[in-house]
Amino acid sequence: MFFVLCISVVLGFAAGQLRTEPAKQYYRELGCTELEGETNAYNCSSLAELSETKKCFHNHKSYKVKDVIKGDDIGYPCAYECICQKGYKSKNANWQCVHIECPDLFNPPKPDCIRLYTHEKCCSEKTYCPATDPPMPHTCEYKGVSYVEGQKFVDGCKNCICQKGFNGTLVEPFCKPITCEFYLHYSDYIQDGCVPTYYEPNDCCPVPIWRCPQESDVVITQKNIEDQSGLKCKFGNLELAIGNMLSPSEENKCVECSCQVPPHLTCLMNTTCYSQH
């Protein structure tokens, strides 16, 4: 049984610090949709399908144990194939994936040379060396930096590749959202009602630390925070109004969770606490 206890206290989590872009990333990958008229609240009723713990899920499809997905069915170029397997530590089925290891990881380019990519492939296609190769026919300018055709750059939660026609707008086909592959890597946590932890407020993808419901969890109310929206975050058997916090867990005392973008909690690593442990 979960205990609901309201305590008036001020902690280090900045209540007004909305992770708007990472939250959109997280909810988009889960298949949640924005609530009508709300920019920082989502409807995640589609997650009800995850109650089938003996199946794996990806891209809103369900798979049986021993099913295999590859290529376009995965939608992530750095994963070669994934197999749905019975859980070892959890009762939930989950994906086990074989990832592509690019030669780039073990063979860095020569000084002043640039790896060139396409969105469709995980590894670079070739290397461009300005000192010895002919000038590239197309370049891209973005925030005062010049990129050659095929060169990667990242802005926020967008992974971009310089291509002919780029005009400074971070849209497809030039840029694609960075994917964290929540269903491939963390489906068992999602099924157990856990939420991810981010190291920095604007990180696109979480660190591999998940906050799961515990019987000792209580709600902590922050002083001087009044929310008139009526929107709530749900965590286990608890409901938290926007601005409310969750009590720290014994396992991860440096993880601070609060209701910022309903219906799930937002969890951040308290870096000062983390550096002292």
Quote the average pLDDT.
86
- Main sheet strand line-up: 1-18-21-22-23-16-17
- Give the count of helical stretches: 3
Residues in helices, as a percent range: under 10%
Question: What is the percentage of strand-forming residues?
Answer: 25-35%
Structural class: mainly beta
Gyration radius, in Å = 21 Å
Low-pLDDT residue spans = 1-16
**Termini Cα gap:** 31 Å
Shape: globular
Largest sheet, described in full?
7 strands, mixed
Record field, number of beta strands: 23
Order of helices and strands: EHEEEEEEEEEEEEEEHEEEEEEEEH
Signal peptide: 1-16
Protein name: VWFC domain-containing protein
Domain VWFC: 56-129, 140-212
Keywords: Signal
Summarize the structure in words:
The strands form eight sheets. This protein has a seven-stranded mixed sheet. It has 277 residues and is mainly beta. It has three helices and 23 strands. It is globular and about 65 Å long. The model is unreliable at 1-16 (pLDDT under 50). The chain is 9% helix and 32% strand. A hairpin with an 8-residue loop joins strand 16 (195-198) and strand 17 (207-211). It comes from Nezara viridula. Keywords: Signal. Residues 1-16 form the signal peptide. Residues 56-129, 140-212 form the VWFC domain. InterPro entries: VWF_dom.
Helix/strand layout:
Blueprint: E1 7-8, H1 20-30, E2 33-34, E3 42-43, E4 55-58, E5 61-64, E6 68-70, E7 79-85, E8 94-99, E9 114-116, E10 126-128, E11 139-142, E12 145-148, E13 152-155, E14 158-161, E15 175-177, H2 182-191, E16 195-198, E17 207-211, E18 219-221, E19 232-235, E20 238-241, E21 245-246, E22 255-261, E23 264-269, H3 271-275
Parallel strand pairs: 1-18, 16-23
Antiparallel strand pairs: 2-3, 4-5, 6-7, 7-8, 9-10, 11-12, 13-14, 14-15, 16-17, 18-21, 19-20, 21-22, 22-23
Protein name: VWFC domain-containing protein
Signal peptide: 1-16
Domain VWFC: 56-129, 140-212
